Amino acid sequence: MAEIAVSVACEVAKCLMAPVSRHCGYVIFSDCRVRQLNVEVKKLGDTRDEVQHSIDDAQNNMKPIKAKVETWVKEVETVADEAHEVLDYDGRATKTCFYGWLPNPKARYCLGNEASKMIKEIKDLIEQGQFESVYDEISPPGCVGGSLNVTLIVNLSAVDGGDFITDSRTSIFQGIMKALDDEKLKVIGVHGPGGVGKTTLLEEVKKKLMKENRSFDMIINVEVSQTPDLNNIQGQIADALSLNLKKKQSQQGRRDLLFQRLHSDPNEKVLIILDDLWTELKKFMRKEEIGNLGMKEQ
Fold first, then answer.
1. Which segments constitute the NB-ARC domain (predicted)?
2. Each residue of 98-141: pLDDT tens digit?
């Protein structure tokens, strides 16, 4: 009978030892757990940065992001915030008592327990974040090509009727800046005889916009030349947008993809400067895209 009682007691003791040992570990090894949590938080940040880079690249190329990837990113943000709260608590908590002679078991237990939970959650997220691809191959519904809604071309080369280089240069510059602030204008034309300084003026406009951090998220400078190559022009714009056009062989397909990219974010403002344009602008657009622009023929 005594042997049975001893056997039962041993089994009970074994069952109790594991949780007791685990809870004691929270107190004894709290500092070690916090250090490990710091390491895992950094690993999670590195994984998140890699995934975000892939997401940015996919979005630039008009690829629809997988729902599970978007969910993962949100979960990472939540868990990262919680982990930093635990680490902040480590800095604030009083981990000793009796004037520093003895460890504070309550504070260390809470810290070790929370750190252990966060370490497990972070490891799971890092493992889940090893995506083979962050986007779906199919295009999202409704993502089709379109035409730029051009409302007006403004002739600024004749402002004040003075000489382009001297008398009216400041006036023209101010006119361009004012036109760029007008949300209704989609195309602004600056034209005049060759060699009068149109390119230099537009460079000054670009520098001014960048210096003042104006409302444009991106400014793209495109060299057109006297014998324009549409594929090259599309390529220059695509490179600035980090957009991959290699899978689009036709000019129509490349144009549609550029249009989709430029209109993918309604809050993003992009300024495209077509420099050294010798031919009429309407040759770069279909007749229905131009409408009645009041464009002065040269």
1. 175-280
2. 344 445 555 566 777 788 889 999 999 999 999 999 988 654 44
